[in-house]
Write a structure and sequence with these properties.
The chain contains 8 helices and 15 strands. It is an alpha/beta fold. The radius of gyration is 20 Å and the shape is globular.
């Protein structure tokens, strides 16, 4: 076979591969069928929540304590997809940002949403360096800001409502955000303690109501106050936690409070990665 024929054959193969790429993209868009996906990834003792809007835009809230997040993302993202539109670092604790260092090295990220709160840890230093090397644009969250994910889906910032530079308790600076699509909502609270929960209830408890609650601080008794749970009134509660962790999470009083509300409880230590989809009317578990 002459050189020209080989080049022509190679060119045809490349065109075929590209054509198939767009065909599969179209098929995947049809499969989404106007659905929002919220996946609580099994990353051990930490948080990592992957969100895909009906538009196909993607958000990752926290990354857990290790590179295990990469294996979980590989299970729910197409193998060719190496871009995540926005990542959110709720606060600079290792069990929320260590995995994001690996995500930033593997994926192209357009935006990073993070507060001004800092940590003296080596993990936070590595995270800041990874953000810089990735080239992602940093956004500082403020209450009322809405991240438009497209096709009617959005991420509304509930907290913070002020500059968090100099915050001594990083948990008190956790980003609280609400994923909204149609009539459905999922509230993600990071490690926000009871003091912040009460503040949010005072600001406007009616704005907290959500179908899904990502239970604060892995089910610790330092979160999930009675007044906060009553304001959120979740029917579905997700606890991201590792089996037999040294903290005793989730604490029994938190489980009892959720059960008294009638919320159905889902735990990553028992179920692995937990995925819900919404058609804008209700959430269903995959």
């Amino acid at each position: 076979m002459n050189t020209f024929a080989k080049k022509a054959r190679f060119g045809t193969l490349v065109i075929f591969i590209i054509a198939n790429f767009f065909v599969w993209n179209a098929l995947l868009a049809e499969e989404r069928g106007g659905e929002l996906k919220v996946a609580f990834l099994d990353v051990g003792q930490g948080d990592a929540i992957f969100i895909e809007a009906p538009s196909g835009n993607q958000m990752l809230v926290d990354g857990g304590p290790s590179k295990k997040v990469l294996a979980e993302l590989n299970k729910i993202m197409p193998v060719y997809d190496r871009t995540i539109d926005i990542i959110v670092a709720t606060h600079p604790d290792k069990d929320h940002i260590a995995g994001l260092v690996d995500v930033l090295s593997r994926y192209q990220i357009n935006f990073v949403l993070m507060t001004e709160a800092v940590s003296e840890s080596a993990t936070f230093a590595a995270f800041e360096k990874a953000v810089e090397q990735n080239g992602a644009q940093v956004i500082r969250p403020r209450r009322g800001m809405i991240i438009n994910l497209g096709d009617g889906a959005g991420f509304k910032i509930i907290f913070p409502d002020r500059d968090m530079a100099g915050q001594t308790d990083v948990n008190e600076g956790s980003i609280v955000g609400k994923v909204e699509y149609g009539q459905t909502a999922a509230l993600l609270t990071g490690d926000s303690p009871i003091s912040i929960e009460r503040y949010l209830v005072l600001l406007g408890g009616a704005n907290l109501q959500s179908d899904i609650l990502k239970v604060g601080h892995h089910g610790s008794r330092t979160s999930s106050s009675a007044e906060f749970l009553a304001a959120v009134a979740p029917t579905l509660a997700v606890i991201s936690v590792s089996a037999k962790n040294s903290y005793g999470h989730p604490h029994q009083e938190v489980l009892a409070s959720l059960q008294n509300l009638g919320a159905q409880i889902f735990r990553t230590d028992e179920l692995g990665t937990i995925i819900f989809t919404s058609d804008g009317q209700s959430f269903q578990r995959e």
